[in-house]
Amino acid sequence: MLPSAWQVSLGYQFGWNPWVEKIGDQGTFVAVGYSQSQGLAGATQLISGVPTRVGFVPKSRLLMTASEWVLEGLKFTLEGSIDWDYPLSEGGTGATGWGLLTSLTFAF
Questions:
Q1: What is the pLDDT of residues 13-60, one digit of tens each?
Q2: Which of 29, 72, 75, 82 gives a 20 to 30 Å CA spacing to 101?
């Protein structure tokens, strides 16, 4: 077994100024990321007598993130993802999954 994975991402900070110490600290931030894996389709384990797929990651994933400081110290983030699972022939489901995450971050 030779599992492997890689990821690449790009981010951009709108309204950036030189006094900001890290991306995402002020203004609007957007990012896109893509990743792929090989040999990480998971294994099957008997749980209560039922074969269950465990320990897996998607074959590939696309992430899209946007974040905005809506008030002083309060950031709203929206992130969408699309996961493509391994095909049935490689131990996966062959399915595509969609996800949406929102968060509010309060910094003090």
A1: 887 666 666 655 677 889 999 999 998 887 788 999 998 888 788 999
A2: 72
Query: Residue 17 belongs to what H/E stretch?
Result: none
**Residue 54: Cβ within 10 Å count:** 10
Other CB atoms closer than 10 Å to residue 58's CB: what's the count?
22
Euclidean distance between CA atoms 90 and 13, whole angstroms? 39
Tokens of 31: 């990012």
* Furthest C-alpha separation in the chain: 59
Question: Where are the domains positioned within the chain?
Answer: 4-106
Among residues 80, 75, 73, which one has the least CA distance to residue 101?
Answer: 80
